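Residues determine shape. We examine one folded chain.
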Amino acid sequence: MSDSKPSMDLDRSLPIVSRRNAVKGGFATLGAAAFVASVSPLRRAAKETSIAEFMQQHYQELSDDDKRAVIARLEADAKENYGADVTIGDDRPIPGTKFVYAINLSVCNGNGKCVEACHRENNHDRDTNQSYIRVLEMPLGTMDMEQGDTTYDHAVPKDGKFYLPVQCQQCDEPPCVDVCPVQATWKEQDGIVVVDYNWCIGCRYCEAACP
């Protein structure tokens, strides 16, 4: 919900298309520009989406009052659907600050706690083992990631191995931002790459572009 998120000039007069149909249209057009053109007509109603949710995802640049209303709605939805009392923040970029990301491979022991924390923070699907972080168990003496193993389940650390967590690198010039056809990902002024889950349509162009 940051103010630095790019705005999109979408036609407000047209009906909507479901997320699934949008993704199908995107693959059929074979290109980001054509994909945006295919989504912009928004011809079909999304049966599972409320008016408030749809406006948040597709049309409306939110005012401060709108943002507070969205946060209240999401917190109420979590309580109603999952019985969870959640508090949603709206953290903004910090002026005069640039965050960087570093990993000390000599300290990492492959315990996978970073993966578990990422699952909790981003509410990943445990059944499909989806994760933004993979920890590779690597043979000593090589950086060839093809030799890494992410499925190890033995006690760690193991002799003759080192551990290489792989995740978003928070690039200075993130290619995922450049290829996203709906501008669901962007880079904040303080250096953090952000994804708007509600705006994302799941096309995975960002995944393909990630170095």
In short: Residues 113-166 form one domain.
